[in-house]
Amino acid sequence: MRTKRTPIAIVVAALAAAALVGCGPQDKPASGAKPTPAASTTASPTDSASPSETPSPSASTSTSASPSDSPSASATTSKPPVVPAMMKQGSTGTQVRELQARLGQLNLFSRTPTGTYGSVTANAVNDFQERYNLPMTGSVSAQTWSKLRSVTKQPTHAAMYPPATQPAATKLDPRCMTGRVLCISKTSRSLSWVINGKVQTSMDVRFGSQYTPTREGQFKVDFKSRDHVSTIYHTSMPYAMFFSGGQAVHYSSDFAARGYAGASHGCVNVRDKAAIASLFDQVKAGDKVVVYW
User: What angle do CA 241, 22, 232 make, to 5 degrees?
Assistant: First the structure.
């Protein structure tokens, strides 16, 4: 008699996407992408083994090896122990800044230390390990750290936290010369915090791509959100200062990790977390925002 299988009921739930503010890195998948359905693990009654399929004692005895034929347990080769990493992708903090500054002394890390261990730092570590015949892991073990410290000098505070100053070749837009202004230049890819024409601090920024450009013009800070999360792209946007709809100035871990290899969905990304945190505390709702070439 043939066993009839019970069909699996498929339930499709329609979710309404909330059209709220926020933007994230361009390489993130769209929130509407459909997940690949998981393979069903439900077995039909006929798939389960019957008691008659259990090997008989005689079969088990006939296939077993004698003690003299089997290798001893002591001869088994064990895997080498995994060496824990002191720093790896995702690590943050002062020690990461020191790592980046030391790699910079060897011309292996050409960017401003950020304190965020991303893919750029991992590649620099990998290059260092290759140069000194160390295991190429991209992570910093005690062995890698010891070797790096032996061939570099202790970086100064200024090297780890370089002062953010307005580039001499950059001329401020005239609209930035009065009042309290977040003056954002697409030409120099910099943000300057300006009060009555005097630059208080500057920092590197990244913009949207050609398909999701950062809008240019004069705006004002509408509202601030310290721990904002985009409800469109489901990405973290710490220290967000919104100035034009869903576009905001905010910290981007993706920018800190990959630099200008990526882009935002229109927001102004900052990669120096300490700098944007300090700026967030100074800027007030209503302050001017100028985005220009």
Answer: 165
